[in-house]
Amino acid sequence: xATLFGSGIKRREDPRLITxxxxxxxxxxxxxxxxxxxxxxxxAHATIRKIDTAAAAQAPGVIAVITGKDIAGKVGPVPCAFxxxxxxxxxxxxxxxxxxxxxxxxxAVAMIVATSRAAARDAVDLVDVDYDPLPATVDxxxxxxxxxxxxxxxxxxxVAFTWHVAGGDADQAFAxxxxxxxxxxxxxxxxxxxxxxRSAVASYNKATGQLTLWATSQNPHIHRFLTSVTLGLPEHxxxxxxxxxxxxxxxxxxxxxxxxxxxxxxxTLGRSVKWTEDRSENYTVTTHGRDHVEYVEMCxxxxxxxxxxxxxxxxxxxxxxxxxxxxxxTILHGLMYSGAYTIPNVKGTVIGAYTNTTPVDAYRGAxxxxxxxxxxxxxxxxxxxxxxxxxxxxxxNLIPAxxxxxxxxxGITYDSGDYHAALDKAMELIDYRGFRERxxxxxxxxxxxGIGVSSYTEICGLGPSQVAGQIGFGGGLYESAIVxxxxxxxxxxxxxxxxxxxxxxxTFAQIVADEFxxxxxxxxxxxxxxxxxxxxxxxxxxxxxxxxxxxxxxAAVKVKEKAKKLAAHLLEAxxxxxxxHDGKFQVKGSPAQAKxxxxxxxxxxxxxxxxxxxxxxxxxxxxxxxxxxVFPYGTHIATVDVDLETGxxxxxxxxxxxxxxxxxxxxxxxxxxxxxxxxxVGEALQEIxxxxxxxQLMTGTMMDYAVPKASQMPTIESHFTYTPTPVNPLGVxxxxxxxxxxxxxxIVNAVVDALAPLGITHxxxxxxxxxxxxxxxxxxxxxx
Amino acid sequence: xxRSIALSVNGVSHSVEVEPRALLAQVLRDDLNLxxxxxxxxxxxxxACTIHLNGRATKSCTVLAVQAEGAEITTIEGLAKNGALxxxxxxxxxxxxxxxxxxxxxxxxxxxxxxxxxxxxxDEQIRHAIxxxxxxxxxxxxxVAAIKSAASA
Amino acid sequence: MIxxxxxxxxxxxxxxxxxxxxxDGTKVLAGGHSLIPMMRFRLAQPGRLLDIGQLxxxxxxxxxxxxxxxxxxxxxxxxxxxxxxxxxxPLIAEATRGIGDVQVRxxxxxxxxxxxxxxxxxxxxxxxxxxxxxxxxxxxxxxxVAAADFFTxxxxxxxxxxxxxxxxxxxxxxxxxxxxxxxxEQKASGYAIAAAAAVVTKxxxxxxxxxxxxxxxxxxxxLADASGAVGSHGDDxxxxxxxxxxxxxxxxxxxxxxxxxxxSHLARVVARRAIALALSRAG
Lengths: 784, 153, 283
What we know:
The complex is a heterotrimer. Chain B has 5 helices and 5 strands. Chain B is of the alpha+beta class. Chain B folds into 2 domains: 3-78, Roll (Ubiquitin-like (UB roll)), CATH 3.10.20; 87-151, [2Fe-2S]-binding domain (DNA polymerase, domain 1). In chain B, strands 2-1-5-3-4 form a 5-stranded mixed beta sheet, sandwiched between helices. The longest helix of chain B has 14 residues, at 104-117. Chain C is 30% helix and 27% strand. Chain C has 11 helices and 14 strands. In chain C, helix 10 (236-242) packs across helix 11. Chains A and B meet through helix 1 and helix 18 of A and helix 1, helix 2, helix 3, helix 4 and helix 5 of B.
């Protein structure tokens, strides 16, 4: 039988999704369902003088109006679960409903529960909150300056943490370096914009004390854990179901006040409760991404060897520390300061700041895009300074394949890879030299073309649990799986992660079907329900396949080992004399003596004739805790045309060469790259969340936040090299975030390259026409 | 305040009690249980709620149910005929034109409108035609490929 | 996003509609693609909606004679589906293709959009450039208003509260005129940051007439003076000079998407590009 590993078979999730038969959280209907709506602060910063709920409580259809006073002692503060050590992290309480003070536009002050969505919404307008507005602070750099508005009494100067990373001796490297370049970079705030808004449905059985919570979650087991902690409800009484999830990109990792409140309401009112956010609510309440103001510098020799990198980063956390927030600009960012290079000396300081804005948390790439972006921008600046082609500087500094595994300055060890091969292949595919010639000619005709390169490596497949403990992550980072074989040979595999678009219902079935030599139709992958699936930590950090897939593989191997023992018993042969061939265990040299997988499944389940000491049944569970992270890498190259008159950037070609190890399903891998790259192109060219100085989100709807449209985006030429990792039994690395990590700097580098003749060395992303035009005007000395 | 209206959806007539302010998308989902039509925004940008109203792609979150009385409505649930997937549904499956699948019903309904008036659209025409449908997962490339392949199917 | 409660009336005839319009708190609903989004945010909370979306009297394109008459209830899609209209007024088709998206064009109506008078919408500029006249009617009578007098500010028009826009009359386009629409769109909303509609005539190589209208720039679409191009051959320098003052006297918008300076610059760019393109199509 041909192996399914490596085959681009059609996805098994699709039949329900293309026919409208999927089940997303807002699709859940329960008898007697009620609907919740939140009353949210219109001010970024204000003290609450009084909340008058009388009119709302009497409105038609209203069942309850719940305020912070009502939940005191019953709903705990919204937890932060990434307690990064050695940085004086301050985690002020984050009340689920504000009672004394609101700290961002969208901060909830009351919850309405009513018999219909409309009645709940109407009652929101009837809650009279008397606010006393305070000055606000929205910029992560300004927020930590003296004299700025203070958010939390417990956090002087709004400094949430000051985190340091160092490897080698960066100060000495800079002191001795022939060449130094520096930049001030703003990595703008982004809105993750999963197409499905967040939603939660809760139902509670008072007699059994059992809470069922349907939620838009990338990690239902974490949500069960956090719900237990927040509501003080025993964990075994909580069932969290994350049904079909319409994208997350990090924004559906955190535990939010909303889900806890919906659960609380169901428990106290004895009614099932549903809450679904609107898009504008999503934009003001669901976590944002990025938000850095950075001072970064690179040093090196005059002939192209990079010797050091230093950073000072102001990272905005928003008003409160969201679930994973402190880990994003620190652990997931600073440890990657060597990038794909042999940079021996690095040093960074990250200052986390509370601001009167929506909390910031993981967003596709989470910390690594920010690291890659600053490194790749600096490499280009350095190359330009020494008059060397940026691609050649990269080639000179990339970690050589023969040095793998390679321990970088920050102490982490990259697993495997041939970084030069990816760079060379990408340069060849885009005809790098040919483009440089065309660029030269075009410039003479007044056309400004540019080419940008980005060589990245990223840390994913999170990660060893021991490391999770060391870095303050409030959970494990292993994964688990149960493989259960039924008497008829059909297989169900239960996994602890929660894929939501990445296709593991298909790729994981490919793994299992291969292991057992059965048709893929005989295998079903089950995810998302904590009642049936084993403990897992979720789908983020490009970890599902590298960690969860490995757990599944190991569980399947265990099942097969048991089947082999049973086969030996039934065939009255030595186990050592059996070989696996075409879905059967057969006696070597005597293939007629064989037991097919299905036969063994039946015999194990009926248990009529088991070997002495063997338990009946055919199932196994496995936990997989990797020994290291995995490090996908690659090179992306884009060419662009800049219209000097309007500032409009057109991407001409986009070539990427990524290496995430072997592909279980090449079609799905390529799809991940497409989506990731376009999200990065959006970040590079058009996406930005803008706050006014008084803390109003100016891009609060899709009318103002430019989610990429089909007509605005280029076609991607996606290519690969294939280097397995030794870290897991499948050899696979992650590919969910690589596209976003690689694409942002390559687009910006291309635009700056196009405008280099004007003396432009940097423009902060997003490179909207307005910004590019302004930079051109400035370069021309303001003259038009 | 509620009134009884008749809606013809996927060839079936329904009588529903709605408030005039009820949006067609909400009525399809909540009252008629046709939850394949999704709601992804509140400004008529995302297109997840796209259905056909008298054969034309329409954002059902920007139509009142009372406005739709007397019209022929088709939703994603009504696209497959006699148990056979619509060529677009097959093409999206074949070409990996979806990941999380949330935007997919609306995307397919828009594409169906395009193909009804243009049997062999170019990439550029396809990208223009789905401007009113946002997808955050696929980068659009395989969606374009799927629509193109359905056109030639 | 649920609108506040309101009453709903569907007009069965034009007379029906004219009798109902003008009563307190009544808003006219055509395609709804401007009004319903505002109602979802409760920025508009009309007490009653008068639905004129089904009125056959308001639909249709009449191309008898050398001009045109377009019913206010005609959808953008119906405009695009008329090759005859596109032949006579290619400007309408060019601009309409860029309005909203397919779904919006399927529902949105030309009259609804014009009566809504969004300062960044496309069609007002097209109407100005083509010299349209808007025919209005109330229970008491009818009157006609030139497009140039119709748009009185952001989201405000010459329509009285008891008046309905019935149809749009377009004069015959100048003989052998070239027309073009050039728009620079805000990437999220698709609305124009600045857009220009131009109608250009020429004799041999010389420009003999330019009508230019801009939208997105100020609080309403307006006719801009580009007469400086007349007599020239339409070379870059001549057009550059002709559009140099197209925002003169206009209170140019500045917002998070475009500063006053950038939008003013774009206004000149789209004006020049529209004229140049129209010129290339003239004759």
